[in-house]
Amino acid sequence: MNNLREWDNEHVWHPFAPMQAYREEGAPIIAEGEGFDLIDTDGNRYLDGISALWCNIHGHRVPEIDTAVRQQLDKIAHTTLLGMSSPPSIELARRLVEKTPAGLNKVFYSDSGSTSVEAALKIAYQYHHQKPGGPEQRNLFVCLDHAYHGDTVGSVSVGGINLFHQVYGDLLFETLRVPSPVAYRVPEGHTRESYLQHCRDEVVRVLDEYADRISAFVIEPLVQGAAGILVHPEGYLKFVREETTKRNILMVADEVAVGFGRTGTMFACEQENVQPDFLCLAKGITGGYLPVAATLTTDEIYEAFLGEPHEGKTFFHGHTYTGNPLGCAAGIASLELFEQNRVLENVAETSALLTERLREVADHPHVGEIRQQGLMVGIELVQDREGAIPFDSKLRMGHQVTLEARKQGLILRPLGDVVVLMPAPAMPAERIHELCDKAFAAIEEAVSS
Ligand SMILES: *Cc1c(COP(=O)(O)O)cnc(C)c1O
Fold it and tell me: Which of these three, 313, 340, 367, is where a domain ends?
């Protein structure tokens, strides 16, 4: 046991982690979970303030999900969906179709958020080649500045976070970028209102100019998560749907982060009554238990892939562990718990509680802006509130807050200098209070030292 830290430093390359700093600091090694707590190998207990990186829904070691996975394990752990099927993958597909916005009737499984987006992009592209009245050569995707859709090369192509994506520039396919309609630091010459109008005008301009070359418009509905919890103005999603529909352009809704209750409704698209052509789901789909993802689409798109095998209309794409039975069993159990435990009602209550508690730090001299949508919260730390002047990036202020939070018994992970609070949808009110108490104390410690 004592060698774990050494072996971790010796052998494990951690994702999205500056490894030199990681190895110097000695992060917790989590050995167990219990409810909303994480317990490390030294026996320290932490509240999980980020839902195990935005995927946990009902807590850890939930008896109903544990049992569902164990029962499936007694049958079979894995076979394949290539040319065959399995009961849990069928059952989960049926339930996802029931719960998601109308019109999405077909489920294509994969195993991560990135691959769910990757599948949507390839299906959209191929659809235009095979659709009735086609073929059409549409090889452009529209995406937003600061978008995050995953880390595979295709999903990076539609991404817009320079820190993550710029280095791969030469490898990526061409996209059309529109500005993100979020206005904390409004560009020169704009007011908040004029900037939002400019963002809408840009959507119209780009769609008009390239209408017959665009394969799909890719968007994170309501909240751009990895960009720093950027909350879109009300109506923007609906606007994008209307403008794309008018021009017969497909829309990919990436609900990998916002899906499964995190924004207040089961899916974010519901809040603006939007029916996308593709819905990408991952993170919360198994309650945060196992790697399963799904790309949902319409009958119309699916039907363009039908034909005699020799016609070559097949979607030649899929991963070995696609639709894994253990993961799908966890997914079914998670959806049942949403009903049984009235999770969405809890989200309504705890989101309101968060809004209330966040007022305590709203006027803090080092808090530039607080953004919240349901249980997704971003607290943007700045050196100077008046001028929205950021901290020197060498200070890694967001990271300092994380280190302080650990001392308080809270696990956080920031996005730059944005402190992210992402409690699980089933977390009860008293733990939300604890999350706020500890997070606010950690912010105070970090900015004043
Ligand atoms: C996390 C995330 C992804 C990528 O999911 P992975 O499972 O990490 O591949 C894609 N889109 C959004 C919006 C995300 O938040």
Answer: 340
pLDDT in tens, 37-67: 999 999 999 999 999 999 999 999 999 999 9
288: CB partners within 8 A, 6+ apart: 51, 52, 55, 56, 57, 58, 424
Domain count, the chain: 2
Q: Say if residue 202 is in the same domain as residue 351.
A: no
Look up the domain containing 352 and give its range.
2-58+343-448
Residue to mutate (ligand 1; options 56, 109, 149, 413; most atoms within 8 A of CB): 149
CA distance linking residue 263 with residue 265, whole number of Å = 6
**pLDDT tens track for 322-362:** 999 999 999 999 999 999 999 999 999 999 999 999 999 99
- Please work out whether the CB of residue 257 comes within 6 Å of at least one atom of ligand 1: yes
Say whether both 39 and 137 belong to one domain: no
End residue of a domain, out of 281, 305, 340: 340
Q: What's the gap in Å between 262 CA and the centre of ligand 1? A: 14
**Burial of 78: CB neighbours in 10 Å, binned 0-12, 13-18, 19+:** middle
Closest-lying ligand 1 atom to the alpha carbon of residue 255 = 13
Cβ of 149 closer than 6 Å to ligand 1, yes or no, is: yes
Residues 253 and 317 in one domain: yes
